[in-house]
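Give me the fold.
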Amino acid sequence: MVDRIARISEEIKREVGNIIQSQLKDPRLPEFTSVTEVEVSRDLRYAKVYISILGSEKEKKLALQGLKSAAGFIRHEIGKRIKLRYTPEFQFELDDSIERGVYLNKLISEVVKDDNKIINDHAKED
């Protein structure tokens, strides 16, 4: 059962991503909007879709509003593309894990750069 839900979640993730990229023409959706994960409930009636949006807080808020208003259309399209007894209702959530990763990577790079500078300065003194 768990494997089936995981497969359905992955399939929905792929299809929702395709729909967002190719079929939604909402100006509130930035070009860099991607589906990072989908969690489908055990009864397959609900799906939480995690979205990563590259942009400002205002752009993210507007994009989330656009996705929520398109939820019915997305559900209809998923119903046509994936044969399930019930097509889940979608709930969109912002996923900022990619941005957090970029930020942490930047911090690590700065520390490494500072460490290298200290090491080079000590090497010059010797």
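The CA atoms of residues 12 and 38 lie 7 Å apart.
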